Every structure is written in C-alpha cells, then in structure tokens.
C-alpha cells in the first residue's frame, strides 16, 4: 500500500542553522504517528513543513501520492490543530467550525451537515451557539479539533494540542483523540514532548533529536528495545538506571563489570549478534527491579540506603544509593519504606539494555 505521507531527504535551514537534516519518513494510510522529542528537536518544524507553513530547503513531501512540496497549505488536503486554540472570539462555535467552509464556497446544506457531524463526533452539540469565552479549555480544544474535522481531510496534524490544559483535561482529551482516530481511521501526525501522550496514542513513535529521527518504532519496541542511550533515557519516568563499565567475554559468555560489581549476561539477546568486548553502558528500568523477598532470589542483588521516597498512590518511587551509584526502583504503592532505610534490590540482566560507550548505540 502506498504511504499516506512520504517525506524524502527533507532539509530545512535558517541561515547556517540546520533544523532538519536529510530526513526520510513514510506514514501509513490510517496510521497514528507521534513525533516525540525535547524542545528544539525539530518536531514542530517538521509538522509545519508537512502542513506547508514553512518552505523547505531541500527534499520532497508527498501526500496521497501527490507531490505537495510547493503547494499552498489549503491545497494539501490536511486539517491542522494548533497548540493555541486560535478560535475567532466574536464567532460562536458553529461559526468557527463553518468559517473555512463558507470561504471555500461550499453549499449551505453541506456546511450544516459537516458541522453537525463533527459536533456529534466530538460531543459538542450543546456548545454550538456559545462563543469561545463561555467555554472551558477542554471545550475550546474540542472546538479547534472540530474546525479541522469539518474539512473532511485525509490527514490531520496536531501540534501539541493538549499542552495548555491541566493534567485531568489532558488525560480526558487524550482518550477522546484516540477514540476519534478509531472512529475515523484517518492518518494522524501528532507532535508532543509528553511521553505519556506518545506511548498511549501512537501506532508508531518517531523519537527526534537535532533535526533527525533517532528511532521509529511501536511504543513497545521503543520502550523495551531503545535504539540508543538517548532514547532509553528519554522514554520512562523515572529514567532508566545506568551503570558505566566494561563488557567482558570469555568462551562465548558475556558479563558486565562496574564499580566492583559483576553482572552475568546470560539470557541477554544482543541486537546484532555477539559484540566485541569493551566499554559500555548497562541500563535497567526502575520497574524491572524488585525488592523484598523477590530480591533474595534475583540473579543480581544490590544493597543500598534509601535517599528519597516519592509515594504516588498506585506505586512508590524510591531513590537509593549503592556505592557511588544513585538508582531508582519502582515499588508497590503501599510499600512501607522511609528515608535512611537499608534496602536490597535485585533484577534479571536479561531485562537490561546494553549500549556501546562511544556510539551509545544498542548492543
């Protein structure tokens, strides 16, 4: 099947600053793709290039098999939802939804039908006669999504649409956007710096840094098999625990040594076959570490002292020191543990992630 969106060797520079660097990306028909990264990584810039709001320096953009690299935004067959609601304050919600359709010269009956259909999908029918000032933040954002929805576009672009909302509204609207995609099956590209939004919404996530895509994969693949140390650190809260040390090999068996501790790597699957021994990073996620009775039977055990406890209700985050290492472990929400307590944790090295020290690529 031909991709819904295809980006070939895309580059964008502002003077001597390269913002996007020879970027390639295919987005499948009906796929929900999330562009994820920290501020300044190029994710919103890439979205604006797809939308036609920025002129590219090099490369091509195809939507539905048509080269739209130099077409106007209105000709690209897209609907876009911005971070700011960008609603006309003097118009009602119905007026905001219908404004672009009126300018396009659509018949009045068709405009009414599209507005009613979008309002029903987004459950904003009772709000159609209100002006934006009389709406909550979540209602305004639903109206902004509705304005994109009435275009009957094949592709929807979302530029951090939930970042201005409080945590409860973000969670509610995240569910609504996911359900919207399930109903419509349109291609959607969604920009965010929030990894929870990315993990819960995406069919695939593109992790970006410095104008390039570091990894493009499903949420589970990115979480369990990050392509490099940066991706491993970026995904997960708290971040992955890292040990700096040496990967050693003897008779085909591998082990990792760090600060006087040695971890057997039996059961670890190397990504590209057995690697050469050398300096490496060993990473283990806080939720892959166990404590209490489970730690007594773990393949690797670490003794330490609790430095900080963060009770979150559903679970408890504990930061502890062992030697010169500071690590995180995720415990049960009812864990009875306090600052200064002695702690023993354990883990299975097969659940670890190993990265080359120099390239920081996954081993």
From TrEMBL:
GO CC aspect terms: ATP-binding cassette (ABC) transporter complex, substrate-binding subunit-containing
Stretches assigned to the ABC transporter domain: 5-235
One Pfam family, short name: TOBE_2
Keywords: ATP-binding, Hydrolase, Nucleotide-binding, Transport
InterPro entries, A to Z: AAA+_ATPase, ABC_transporter-like_ATP-bd, ABC_transporter-like_CS, ABC_transpr_MalK-like, ABC_transpr_MalK/UgpC-like, Mo/tungstate-bd_C_term_dom, NA-bd_OB-fold, P-loop_NTPase
Any GO BP: carbohydrate transport
Enzyme Commission code: 3.6.3.19
GO terms for MF: ABC-type transporter activity; ATP binding; ATP hydrolysis activity
Membrane topology: Peripheral membrane protein
Location relative to the cell: Cell inner membrane
Similarity section: Belongs to the ABC transporter superfamily.
Protein name per the record: Maltose/maltodextrin import ATP-binding protein MalK
């Amino acid at each position: 099947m031909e991709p819904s969106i295809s980006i070939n060797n895309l580059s964008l520079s502002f003077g001597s600053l390269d913002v996007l660097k020879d970027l390639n990306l295919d987005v499948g028909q009906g796929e929900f793709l999330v562009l994820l990264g920290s501020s300044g990584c190029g994710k919103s810039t890439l979205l604006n290039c797809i939308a036609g709001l920025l002129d590219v320096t090099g490369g091509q953009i195809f939507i539905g098999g048509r080269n739209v690299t130099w077409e106007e935004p209105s000709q690209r067959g897209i609907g876009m939802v911005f971070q700011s609601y960008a609603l006309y304050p003097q118009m009602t919600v119905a007026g905001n939804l219908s404004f672009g359709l009126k300018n396009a010269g659509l018949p009045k009956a068709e405009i009414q039908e599209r507005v009613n259909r979008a309002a029903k999908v987004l459950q904003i029918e009772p709000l159609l006669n209100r002006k934006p000032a009389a709406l909550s933040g979540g209602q305004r954002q639903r109206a902004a999504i509705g304005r994109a929805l009435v275009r009957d576009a094949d592709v929807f672009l979302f530029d951090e649409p939930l970042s201005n909302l409080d945590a409860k509204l973000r969670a509610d609207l995240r569910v609504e956007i996911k359900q919207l995609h399930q109903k419509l099956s349109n291609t959607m590209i969604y920009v965010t710096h929030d990894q929870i939004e990315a993990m819960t919404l995406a069919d695939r996530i593109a992790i970006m840094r410095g104008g390039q895509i570091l990894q493009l994969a499903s949420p589970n693949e990115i979480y369990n098999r990050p392509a490099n140390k940066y991706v491993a650190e970026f995904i997960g809260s708290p971040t992955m625990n890292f040990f700096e040390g040496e990967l050693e090999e003897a008779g085909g068996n591998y082990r990792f040594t760090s600060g006087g501790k040695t971890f057997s790597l039996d059961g670890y699957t190397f990504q590209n076959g057995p690697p050469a021994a050398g300096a490496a990073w060993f990473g283990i996620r806080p939720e892959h570490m166990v404590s209490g009775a489970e730690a007594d039977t773990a393949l690797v055990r670490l003794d330490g002292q609790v430095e900080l406890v963060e009770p979150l209700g559903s679970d408890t985050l504990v930061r502890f020191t062992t030697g010169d290492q500071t690590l995180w472990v995720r415990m049960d929400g009812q864990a009875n543990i306090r600052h200064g307590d002695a702690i023993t944790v354990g883990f299975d090295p097969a659940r670890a992630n190993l990265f080359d020290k120099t390239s920081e690529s996954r081993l």
